Amino acid sequence: MVSLENWRKFGSRESLDYTHTKTFALGIVHVGLAVVQFGLIFALAKSLRVMTRTTLDARPDSIVLALLLGIVPGVVFGAVVPFLFQYFDYFSQLSSRPTVRVLVSLLTVCTYFALFFYHPVTSVLYAAAYVSSRVFVLTGIYGGHRIRATLA
Length: 152
Hints:
This protein is mainly α. It has helices at residues 4-11, 21-47, 53-57, 63-87, 89-95, 98-118, 120-151. It has a domain at 62-152.
């Protein structure tokens, strides 16, 4: 049985530091889990017929708006959030709260799901922007720290 003390230790972790190997690896695992979530939501939308072949073939009302709705939030949640958590004290303190991490993850998945109602291709653009920018930033933070440590 889980004791209250163990639950408090689990809930009160320190802030995220992507320069450590363990946290970097967990960040990459988080990206992998996000890909699985995106795939499951895509499959659910297809099985519930929210997304059909005609929906995928149809052009959105505005291609520029579709690109912006897909790419900008994907980069914000994928790259900007971990950058803020790593390098700014206020956000670093926020990242130590499990509720904030859960809310950020929930916003990520809900944004992906909500973009299906505008256009399914936009949600795929969002997922691609999120995954690629998250991997790029995590690798940059971790690799940059390793390079500086080696050169110092």
